[in-house]
Design goal:
Strand content: under 5%
Keywords: Electron transport, Heme, Iron, Metal-binding, Signal, Transport
Largest sheet: none
Number of helices: 6
Radius of gyration: 26 Å
Distance between the termini: 70 Å
Order of helices and strands: HHHHHH
Bound molecules: heme C
Organism: Paenibacillus eucommiae
Shape: elongated
InterPro entries: Cyt_c-like_dom, Cyt_c-like_dom_sf, Cyt_c_BACSU-c550-type, Cyt_C_IC, Cytochrome_c550/c551-like
Oligomer: single chain
Protein name: Cytochrome c551
Pfam family, one: Cytochrome_CBB3
């Protein structure tokens, strides 16, 4: 009888500690189970769609460059924020896109282009 009580007590203790541990685990588990916005495949697909709709005329079907420069390895030359700035404000002979593209679209495009190295 005494032994059973000890076992019950220690089980309770383990459960109590375990719950605390589980609480922490499930918190981090939730974070990793969310789809990150920076998911590279999603960003690439959306980026390509936006590129096709807005940028092909000057930068070419395969980003090889026409009126505007070759963008195939633009991520080697420029950071994501520099690229976002170029899209937002334009510059040289490039038009500004701050009025026609949303902030999110510009971020997506810039993130995708910056990943091309
Ligand atoms: C009307 C033609 C035109 C369009 C449309 C255009 N660009 Fe450009 N783009 C240019 C030109 C010209 C430059 C070079 C600017 C300069 O001389 O400073 C440039 C430069 C850039 C650069 C910097 C490249 C580097 O190597 O420094 C990026 C990035 C860029 N464009 C992205 C885009 C994206 C993304 C779009 C679509 C949203 C777009 N461009 C649409 C003409 C265009």
């Amino acid at each position: 009888m005494k032994r059973i009580r000890v076992i019950v007590a220690s089980c309770f203790l383990i459960t109590a500690l375990g719950t605390a541990g589980c609480g922490a685990n499930s918190a981090t588990g939730d974070q990793t189970s969310q789809t990150p916005v920076t998911d590279i495949k999603v960003v690439s697909e959306q980026g390509m769609e936006l590129y096709k709709a807005n940028c092909i005329a000057c930068h070419g079907v395969d980003l090889e460059g026409k009126v505007g420069p070759d963008l195939r390895k633009v991520g080697e030359r420029k950071t994501k924020s520099q690229i976002a700035g170029q899209i937002r404000d334009g510059g040289g002979k490039m038009p500004a896109y701050n009025a026609s593209l949303s902030k999110e679209d510009i971020e997506t495009l810039a993130g995708w282009l910056a990943s091309l190295k």
